[in-house]
Design a protein that fits this description.
By secondary structure, the chain is α+β, with helices and mostly antiparallel strands. The chain has four helices and five strands. Strands 1-2-3 form a three-stranded antiparallel sheet, with no helix packed on it. A two-stranded antiparallel sheet has the order 4-5. The chain is extended and about 70 Å long.
């Protein structure tokens, strides 16, 4: 473990109230602990992962609260924190990609308005449904869709 302030080596320096290992920098004497997987949320990571798995499967927040014995506000905080960490991960890793081939089956979106609403309002030109249909057989290496600007 290296110091987040100066980058020098550290030594163990006791534990926090909840049992998390603390460290002290040998150079600048700053003390710190390892970052928690879910920042400032003291929930067990396995229970938080189970709650997120339930939400991803389509379970409601109240049902996930009942199944995990967590408060619904805690589940909402876990969901927001997981979203922030996913956003940060993608922002850090999805930079300057050199993509040889993107394979996607069907992508549907809309620009400003859906087609049925844009049909009656002629003041918005170039808005409505934006569909991309592409079928290309081949080996699927990764399931990842980078953000791509779409227009009509």
């Amino acid at each position: 473990m290296n110091c987040p302030k100066c980058g020098e080596s550290t030594q163990r320096f006791g534990k926090t109230r909840d049992g998390q290992q603390r460290y002290r920098c040998l150079e600048c004497r700053k003390t710190f602990s390892e970052p928690k997987p879910l920042a400032r949320i003291a929930t067990d990571p396995k229970k938080a992962a189970f709650a997120l798995q339930l939400l991803l499967e389509g379970t409601s927040i109240r049902a996930a609260s009942r199944l995990t014995n967590l408060d619904k506000n805690t589940i909402l905080r876990i969901m927001v924190q997981a979203g922030r960490q996913c956003y940060q991960f993608l922002a850090d890793t999805m930079q300057n990609l050199t993509v040889a081939e993107i394979q996607c089956d069907e992508v549907w979106s809309f620009v400003q308005k859906k087609e049925r609403t844009a049909f009656f309002d002629s003041s918005f030109e170039g808005c409505g449904d934006a569909c991309l249909h592409r079928d290309r057989p081949g080996n699927q290496v990764a399931v990842l869709l980078p953000r791509w600007p779409a227009g009509r």
